[in-house]
Specification:
Helix 1 packs across helix 6, helix 2 crosses helix 11 and helix 3 packs across helix 4. The chain starts with a helix and ends in a 5-residue tail after the last helix. It has eleven helices and eight strands. The chain is an alpha/beta fold and about 350 residues long. Helices cover about 35% and strands about 15% of the residues. Strand 3, helix 2 and strand 4 form a beta-alpha-beta unit. The longest helix is centred in the C-terminal third of the chain and has 17 residues. The protein has a single domain, classed as Alpha/Beta hydrolase fold, catalytic domain (Rossmann fold), CATH 3.40.50. The radius of gyration is 19 Å and the shape is globular. An eight-stranded mixed β-sheet has the order 1-2-4-3-5-6-7-8, sandwiched between helices.
């Protein structure tokens, strides 16, 4: 049904004049993206977590020209990877920042341990270990989408490590379960993941991320995600993604925003229609579930000293949709952080 709906949506958009061709046949890339090249050399952090060995892939890109002494850590979203930050990394290192962009456990090139109990606290602890290995002390933390929840959680766990927090269209600013989204147990999430493919990924992103306007450069990121699912070991990816969805739906940071200690900037693409799993809520209740921009408006009032930056023309992923405009906005926030 989900695949059929995705195809119907694409067909409908196509007849309305929106350029949304179906993806080309998916190339299997491996459950850990073994056959997908990143724009910078990949480093590895190896650790023990929940009694098993894990390893995290990450990019560590030095500043170009005169270094400013600051390190920016970029946290990706659920449908993104460290590689998706490529344009942002280029802009930051040109401006003198050292940049670290990890793939979190369960995602992309990093480990997806069988039976792993995902939590933002666990991901935060692993990220801290990675930074310790890399010799990084205080950081500027930038989190997008699901990475925004992780960024906020990390800042709550380790406030002495974060000098500035920037959240880009983050999830978790509202409690979607409290707003009417029914809890979906792990087995049902696995059944949904079994239907995920390039067409459903593209349809979801077209509708929620890019407000009906698809560009050819987005296809690379669909191919990246779909290539994991299409691999012979794709069941590992599907199980990890189901467990990660459970983490997202049950672990928002909405109730703890007032405790955030560092200066916080919210950079929000206003055309974002993302409201995590709102489509599973009863029809009459769906309007109660806040989209990311709606949740950000409320969150900015509860985060002490927060600076809300609205990007009128962008959706869920402004760093992908308008790299030049987004990078200028981000650099301006980093140069003049909000005051508490």
């Amino acid at each position: 049904m989900r695949r059929a709906s995705a195809l119907l949506l694409l067909a409908t958009l196509g007849t309305a004049g929106v350029a949304a061709p179906l993806p080309t046949p998916t190339k299997p890339l491996g459950a850990n993206l073994e056959r997908f090249d990143y724009p910078y050399p990949v480093h590895w952090y190896e650790a023990q977590s929940q009694g098993a060995p894990v390893r995290m892939a990450y990019l560590d890109v030095p500043p170009q020209g005169k270094a400013n002494g600051r390190t920016v850590v970029l946290l990706h979203g659920k449908n993104f990877c460290a590689a998706t930050w490529q344009d942002t990394i280029a802009a930051l290192v040109t401006a003198g920042y050292r940049v670290i962009a990890p793939d979190q456990i369960g995602f992309c090139k990093s480990s997806k341990p069988e039976g792993y109990q995902y939590s933002f606290q666990a991901l935060g602890a692993l990220t801290r270990g990675l930074l310790d290995q890399a010799g990084v002390g205080k950081i500027t933390l930038v989190g997008h989408s699901t990475g925004g929840i992780l960024g906020a959680r990390f800042a709550l766990q380790y406030p002495d490590r974060v000098e500035q927090l920037v959240l880009i269209n983050p999830l978790g600013l509202n409690d979607t379960l409290a707003q009417g989204v029914p809890y979906t147990e792990l087995g049902a999430l696995r059944q949904e993941e079994a239907k995920t493919d390039a067409a459903s990924i593209k349809a979801y992103q077209l509708r929620n991320y890019y407000h009906g306007a698809w560009r050819p450069e987005y296809d690379r990121w669909v191919a990246m995600l779909a290539g994991q699912y299409a691999s012979p070991d794709g069941a590992i990816v599907r199980d990890a993604q189901a467990r990660l969805s459970d983490m997202i739906e049950t672990q928002p940071v909405a109730a703890e925003l007032a405790r955030l200690a560092p200066p916080v900037s919210l950079i929000i693409g206003q055309r974002d229609r993302t409201a995590f799993r709102a489509n599973s809520a009863p029809t009459a209740m769906r309007e109660r579930v806040q989209t990311v921009p709606q949740a950000a408006e409320d969150a900015a009032k509860r985060i002490p000293g927060a600076h809300l930056v609205r990007i009128a023309g962008s959706g869920h992923a402004p760093q992908v949709e308008d790299p030049a405009g987004f990078n200028a906005t981000l650099l301006a926030e980093l140069r003049s952080p909000p005051t508490r």
